[in-house]
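Anyone up for a design puzzle?
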């Protein structure tokens, strides 16, 4: 089965993997399985471009005009006929100082073109973005020119008609014919693709659409994601924190991460460890959402009925991933009405661990790319194991690491005196210490085959800015 072909049945997909071990699954293999199983949603809406920021394009956008619409100047200077450079005169015996003298016959401004004719030996004062006079093909920057006319008549003429009846001298060997001219359609020609399907629209894209006169675009509808936490010990905000109870933080970090992705969030609160309540929650989520993200209830010590129920409601696999923090994870698809498949809806399930840091790590390295793929984002179709960009940094201290698992450590990155990035970890790396994620500005990614890291050794980091 091709890596780009979605699998209809998860267990069939897993049975085709000769090296599949759910009890010690490498991070990269888990990512590949998830990416191969999920499919994009097929629902499109049209939005005004001001409402489309962060949304995924549902169709290519073709340019209906040439950009730029006409040849124009790339800078302030003087426009002239490039072939004049071949007729250059010299005021010195040193050929490296050859100069060309041109008569200024007018001026061109952005939005106000020069309408006269430019003859050989003449030029036009031109501003950035102004239309190039029809016979001109070259612009010399203003700072490279020397004005050589200082007669009273020329001065009076210049005051009444700027840029007229003046001569300039330019260094003819410093410029080539055609320099500093932006050609009609060189950015986008009529009919060419301006933005491709699957592009997540950023501020620059809105500007590009506006520059083409496009007022609205077709985008994928927002992905609906249901979230809930499981555990009898969890308390919602506002409830009394009794002995053994903890406030549920995972729904709030999930809410923030999903909001950054532009998802529509269905917050189902805290669900107790009760078979009836959990089944009802899963059925409701499967009916109303495209994806379900739970935290807690998938570890080795979790109640057996949770796993039995997930298997009853859908096509779900339970993994112990070779990673730290994290490890336990459920993945698959939940049906809302198992007894009537033809009428049922379904949602992809991501059952994450209960520890707060493990939830965030699992989300970024497994769930995020899957959701982007479901949204139809083109970046998620890359052949790499994750679309997140890792950058190199120097570890400021030795790090202990066991080969055979991927480790994610919270770090603080800074710029050393030599200009290199250097990173130090935030201290204790326990998966329940959410404060360490708040203090960190990056995550140190220690790959599956890496062992102990020496001080001064290079490591990969994931920068948090713009991500969390």
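Challenge accepted. My sequence:
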């Amino acid at each position: 089965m091709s890596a780009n072909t979605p699998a209809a049945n998860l267990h069939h997909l897993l049975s085709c993997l000769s090296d599949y071990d759910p009890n010690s699954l490498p991070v990269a293999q888990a990512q590949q399985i998830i990416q191969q199983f999920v499919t994009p949603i097929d629902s499109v809406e049209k939005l005004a471009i001001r409402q489309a920021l962060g949304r995924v394009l549902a169709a290519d956008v073709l340019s209906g005009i040439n950009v730029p619409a006409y040849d124009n100047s790339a800078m302030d200077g003087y426009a002239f006929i490039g072939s004049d450079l071949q007729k250059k005169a010299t005021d010195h015996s040193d050929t490296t100082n050859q100069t060309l003298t041109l008569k200024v016959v007018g001026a061109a401004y952005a939005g106000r073109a020069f309408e006269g004719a430019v003859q050989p030996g003449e030029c036009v004062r031109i501003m950035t973005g102004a239309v190039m006079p029809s016979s001109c093909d070259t612009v010399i920057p203003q700072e490279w020119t020397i004005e050589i006319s200082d007669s009273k008549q020329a001065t009076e003429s210049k005051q009444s008609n700027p840029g007229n009846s003046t001569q300039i001298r330019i260094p003819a060997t410093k410029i080539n014919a055609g320099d500093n001219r932006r050609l009609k359609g060189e950015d986008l020609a009529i009919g060419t693709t301006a933005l491709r399907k699957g592009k997540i629209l950023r501020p620059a894209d809105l500007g590009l659409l506006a520059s083409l006169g496009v007022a609205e675009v077709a985008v994928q509808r927002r992905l609906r994601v249901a979230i809930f936490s499981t555990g009898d010990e969890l308390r919602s905000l506002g409830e009394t924190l009794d002995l053994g109870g903890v406030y549920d933080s995972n729904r709030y970090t999930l809410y923030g991460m999903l909001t950054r992705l532009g998802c529509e969030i269905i917050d189902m609160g805290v669900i107790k460890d009760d078979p009836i309540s959990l089944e009802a929650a899963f059925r409701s989520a499967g009916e109303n959402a495209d994806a379900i993200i739970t935290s807690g209830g998938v570890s080795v010590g979790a109640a057996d009925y949770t796993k039995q129920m997930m298997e009853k409601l859908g096509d779900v696999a339970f993994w112990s991933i070779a990673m730290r923090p994290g490890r336990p994870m459920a993945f698959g698809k939940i049906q809302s009405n198992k007894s009537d498949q033809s009428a049922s809806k379904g949602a992809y399930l991501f059952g994450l661990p209960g520890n707060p840091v493990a939830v965030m790590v699992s989300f970024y390295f497994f769930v995020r790319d899957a959701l982007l793929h479901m949204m139809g984002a083109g970046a998620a179709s890359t052949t790499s194991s994750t679309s997140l960009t890792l950058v190199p940094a120097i570890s400021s201290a030795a790090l202990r690491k066991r080969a055979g698992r991927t480790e994610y450590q919270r770090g603080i990155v800074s710029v050393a005196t030599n200009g290199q990035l250097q990173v130090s970890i935030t201290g204790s790396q326990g998966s329940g210490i959410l404060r360490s994620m708040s203090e960190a500005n990056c995550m140190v990614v220690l790959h599956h085959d890496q062992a102990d890291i020496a001080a001064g050794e290079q490591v990969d980091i994931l920068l948090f800015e713009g991500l969390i």
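A detail worth pointing out: Residues 62 and 193 are 4 Å apart (CA to CA).
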